[in-house]
């Protein structure tokens, strides 16, 4: 071995190298030697060391060592892969916006506190799973598409809806179904849970909030099926938990509330009915809806109101319609075939009793045959004299409809020759339906441009002849369309037809009253709400007027008209009867706080005290309600689709209790006026729920701090409880 002096500067010391290898070997084998010293299980390794050198062991087992190292490295990478996979999945879940369980077919929308679920595709085979419908959607978490092969396609889009005025927001889904082949149809069920729900129903009672069960099947032969659907057909519901549901009403949807599944509203789309089986309407059933979830019902409603109304706004009704009561000629005369002298007699009565009047409504049969659109010359021989006497006290309003009696010789035959009417199933001759008193009439085909132009010409002549200032639109009491109707527009729907009828009438005047419509929230029209009389606990009571008004307000119709009393048994029987003085007084007290109201029973048939009460309530309406409607705040709210009459929870939607949620015999006018009328005859006390705030009780002349339930509040026959909010104290309340 070379000495240190004999080695060069770059040569290694062999002894040092040997010591280094031995040290490395000892370090590597330390665990085994420890094992041997403590437990003695490594005898094979110890025997191997006795027969082989370290170098021979490394040489013989280096392949094993290499494989072991590869295994350790692979295990390390797999562990890292699983770790980062879990992290990525966690991030995907955090970013995920659409939660669909394709196996259970459940769509869930959550705002972090509450959630709403939808049972999807109930008409699809239960055994079939959708294609390319993963639980996690990567790339675009705001959109998902699921395909049930040869059956249907589901598309879901997520978005956050915001209200620019209030700054509130809600999480929303747009859901659409497309059927690929019959007999599959869109069929979803929405969990209504234990929340309180507001919206349309066909129930004659218990409409605000919705209670019990109901089914709604749209038909072209009835104006709705009772309840709210008898006034409008708009499919929007709002819950106390902040869930909003808006269905596209142009789809022919059948609704089943709590009838097929407990605590579920199920919706089925089916194109087999009239209008949807016509030539050119061969598309398979579809369904579209928007589902939103916000922190409270008011926030959700504010962000969804623009979806409900759309963007086309044609203004608000003329404020002159709210200045004083309207008066029904057929109601006051108790006949439909009145003449000009009877009209003039009403004007004389109004003047004599010093009763205010905004519109005198010529409803009933002022024409010789319905559809003439001219006055019957036998009963109105001096039309100019009559209209002059009217205009000194009221403006004249005419009740018209889009129907033409076959006995209206000129207009009916002209419409037939020009093919301006809705045709029957064969598509060649006009289809006839029943008007009031059994008359056979044809209906104007408003889907045809030439029909609208012809009708507009007739109406222009009529308005000029009668010097009319307002219009009331009626669709009769029975079937409003002929059997299996055929329109010139093959894509017409029942919802679109109702909307087009109202749009056509709105072109004549901004003083418009309609009894039935759909999708007309942006049109300048008053929606008429009649009052029903029912016996409850042995007393006759006014029902459904406040409930309907509050529901219509949430559906986007801010202005409603308290339209006298309903006609439950036919017009003739109603005209021969009248409500009791007590009940009529209670109706006047309630109606005076509506944006507008119409007398179908004159107060002078009772006594002087009733006439004086009508005078006082008219002044109260002008001082309070008209002033509120003209205020910049409420006027702006109404232009944006918010109701004039509001539920009591409106002022404190984030702190709801059972009293606030179920009150349906009180209402707010704007945010500052609370009205709690008595609605049954012979009643002189009631409970009143006062919502959050400091309220001035104008009847008792004291202050009430809400929320508070005033039990057994005493009310005289000629008294109506109302409260004015004192906003100056709101900041102190919050502190």
From TrEMBL:
PANTHER family: GLYCOSIDASE FAMILY 31, MYOGENESIS-REGULATING GLYCOSIDASE. GO terms for molecular function: hydrolase activity, hydrolyzing O-glycosyl compounds. SUPFAM superfamilies: (Trans)glycosidases, Glycosyl hydrolase domain. Belongs to the glycosyl hydrolase 31 family. It comes from the Eukaryota. Residues 641-725 form the Glycosyl hydrolase family 31 C-terminal domain. This is Uncharacterized protein. One of its GO terms (biological process) is carbohydrate metabolic process. Keywords: Glycosidase, Hydrolase, Membrane, Transmembrane, Transmembrane helix. The chain crosses the membrane at residues 63-84. Signal peptide: none annotated. Residues 324-620 form the Glycoside hydrolase family 31 TIM barrel domain.
